Amino acid sequence: MTRTLSLTLIAAATVLTSASAFAVTAASSVDYGNIHGYTTISNATIASVSGGTFSGNEATVTPGATLTLNFDANIHFVNADYCPGCIIQEYVAWDGTAIGNGASPRQLGLYSGGILSDIGLGSFTWTTSAPTTPGEYFIGGASTLQYNYVDVNGSLGVNNLASYKVTVAAVPEPESMALLAVGLLVVGAHTLRQRPRG
Q1: What is the pLDDT of residues 50-83, one digit of tens each?
Q2: Which of 68, 69, 79, 193 would bridge 47 by S-S if both were Cys, CB 3.0 to 4.6 A apart?
Q3: CA-to-CA distance for 24 and 33, rounded, in angstroms?
Q4: To the nearest whole number, what is the mean pLDDT of the chain?
Q5: 3-class state of residue 127 by DSSP
Q6: Residue 175 pLDDT > 80, yes or no?
Q7: Closest Cα partner for 56 from 71, 66, 41?
Q8: 12 vs 95: CA distance, rounded Å
């Protein structure tokens, strides 16, 4: 019988929309605290988006747009005596609302192994797709603590800071565009009819 301890740290699916009870700020360097210490995600930048605009670590994109993210990661271990033989799994992930609205893949694994001294994990590039539902979403660091290796499928739980902020803009539906075009034609025809002839 295999015993599995599954504590998801900083991985509660938090609803993060403009109606949130607290404001979330995107910062290019964030320390994500966890039970064994903390993980630092630094130099967070967006390298490209397939539809939309971006600057630094924030983007406004069309639904389902592809984003390429660059960042550095380091793990800082503080106390591991409480769980000898445990395995730490570190990753970056979308917030829970983004995952529920179609963000894919939901996370990128950074480290899976024993609790050691501080580790400089290095530089990472992650390509992911934005949610398909308009809204404000966040990406940041998270971790789990296990007795055995598991398939990590947690999500980011943000507490006022995240490494990336992605706003998915609403795209007008074809019916709305057609209605706008008809309205413009009617206004144009009315204006032509009102012109004095002479």
Answers
A1: 999 999 999 999 999 999 999 999 888 766 666 7
A2: 68
A3: 16
A4: 77
A5: strand
A6: no
A7: 71
A8: 9
Written as six digits, the tokens of 11 are: 């991985």
CA 11 to chain centre: 12
Dist. CA 60–CA 49, nearest whole Å: 9
pLDDT at 176: 66
- Token pair 């390429």 is found at 68
User: Which tops the pLDDT comparison, 30 or 36?
Assistant: 30
Name residue, tokens 């404000």.
136
CB crowding 148-182: b at 16 or more within 10 Å, else e: eeeebebbbbbeebbbbbbbbeeeeeeeeeeeeee
Amino acid 151 reads D
127 within 8 A of 84, measured Cβ to Cβ: no
Residue 48 token pair: 């490209």
Q: Provide the CA 87 distance to its chain's centre, in angstroms.
A: 24
pTM to 2 decimal places:
0.72
Provide DSSP, 34-86: ETTEEEEEEEEEEEEESSEEEETTEEEE-TT-EEEEEEEEEEEE---TTSTT-
Compute how many other C-beta atoms are within 10 angstroms of the C-beta atom of residue 121: 15
